[in-house]
Prior knowledge:
Blueprint: E1 3-7, E2 10-12, E3 18-25, E4 33-39, E5 46-51, E6 58-60, E7 68-73, E8 78-83, E9 92-100, E10 109-112, E11 116-120
Parallel strand pairs: 2-11
Antiparallel strand pairs: 1-3, 3-8, 4-5, 4-9, 5-6, 7-8, 9-10, 9-11
Amino acid sequence: QVQLVESGGGSVQPGGSLTLSCAASGLTFGNYATSWYRQAPGEAREMVATIRSDSRSSDYEDSVKGRFTISRDNAKNTVYLQMNSLKPEDTAVYYCKATRSRGPWSGPFVYWGQGTQVTVAS
């Protein structure tokens, strides 16, 4: 059974930092690209950051570029999101996602974590 378990969320003041972790089990983690998404109340879920399975490239949503860093440790089956200079608008539930292609004729394998709340407020 595949499980993605996020941790590290919490409440922080504007300008503060948090590091989220997502521990994966039940899958060959090194074969999966991983991403962090977030969803604020009343808003659609949006991708925040993504990283290739081999960590050779990553990408970020524009509003977090220069503040957030995604990384992964395949030996620990874990993906991280370091969040610095947090703003109230970063408040959301943060989810990790693991994705692997099944080739051109089938949809990908996609797994989600249960989410962790991040609240940025004075």
